[in-house]
Design a protein that fits this description.
By secondary structure, the protein is of the alpha/beta class. Helices cover 43% and strands 14% of the residues. It contains eleven helices and eight strands. α10 links the parallel β7 and β8. α1 runs parallel beside α11 and α7 packs across α8. The structure holds 1,3-dihydroxyacetonephosphate. The site of 1,3-dihydroxyacetonephosphate has 14 residues, from β8.
Length: 257
């Protein structure tokens, strides 16, 4: 009942011409997958400045376009910030929020992520809210406690009512960019926990239709076994989204599960 979603987070990669070429290659590749539309949703997440070019290159293809962050403010004196409305103007449909790189390197808190999530949904963007634990937390057996806290503070505090169009991404920090993927069993355990917590808050029907993506060293050779898990509804892909062949192979894996 949940359409799989595969989103590429390009992070701070790809100059303008490269971004345009990658978007074209993915758009062409997805159309060649034949019947992908309606069976999988594909989203590209370029850096801000490449957003309009990527949106243009992908226009008519049905691909979604995601910002990698957005301000919780509407407009005003916030130097360097970009609002949800600006992202929409630039062609974005989605926005990735609370990525661990922003949490860990730039000090983003759960409270700020919650404000951004609320502002982006109110501004007409579909938020993809990232959660995930660092290695010492997992080693201490506190993964579900940490992810539970992130759910409460980054999502439940943002949305008193069930947020239509929210996507959650579970990205264990120790699996990001390391080549060490969570095993399907490890990932499934946390995904099931996230769905059950969201179900308690917003109702089981809402939770049953809400997508929870896995992120962290998803590659063409491990995507299928991850996506085959009952509560894994696709992936948020970093490194492997930078090469069209790899990204398209992951999209194919989502199509066949
Ligand atoms: P990698 O796929 O490079 O591990 O990155 C995952 C990620 O951070 C996606 O947001």
């Amino acid at each position: 009942m949940r359409l799989p979603l595969v989103a590429g987070n390009w992070k701070m990669n790809k100059r303008l011409a490269e971004a345009r070429a990658l978007a074209r290659a993915v758009a062409e590749g997805v159309s060649k997958l034949g019947g992908a539309r309606g069976r999988v949703e594909v989203v590209l997440g370029p850096p801000y400045l490449a957003l309009p070019a990527v949106a243009e290159a992908a226009s008519g293809s049905g691909l979604g376009i995601a910002g990698q962050d957005c301000s919780h403010e509407k407009d005003g004196a916030f130097t360097g910030e970009v609002s949800a409305a600006m992202l929409k103007d630039a062609g974005a449909t989605h926005v990735i929020l609370g990525h661990s790189e922003r949490r860990e390197l730039l000090g983003e808190t759960d409270a700020l992520v919650a404000k951004k999530a609320a502002a982006s949904l109110a501004g007409g963007l579909l938020p993809i809210v990232c959660l995930g634990e660092a290695l010492p937390i997992r080693q201490a057996g506190r993964t579900l406690e940490r992810v539970g806290r992130q759910i409460r503070r980054s999502i439940l505090d943002a949305f008193p009512a069930p947020p239509e169009g929210l996507t959650v991404a579970y990205e264990p920090i120790w699996a990001i960019g390391t080549g060490v993927t969570a095993t399907p069993v490890q990932a499934q355990e946390v995904h099931a926990f996230i769905r059950s917590r969201l179900g308690e808050a917003y109702g089981v029907d809402w939770a049953a239709k809400t997508r929870i993506l896995y992120g962290g060293s998803v590659k063409p050779d491990n995507a299928a076994e991850l996506f085959a898990q009952p509560d894994i509804d696709g992936g948020l892909i970093g490194g492997a989204s930078l090469k069209s062949e790899d990204f398209l192979a992951i999209v194919s894996a989502a199509l066949s599960t």
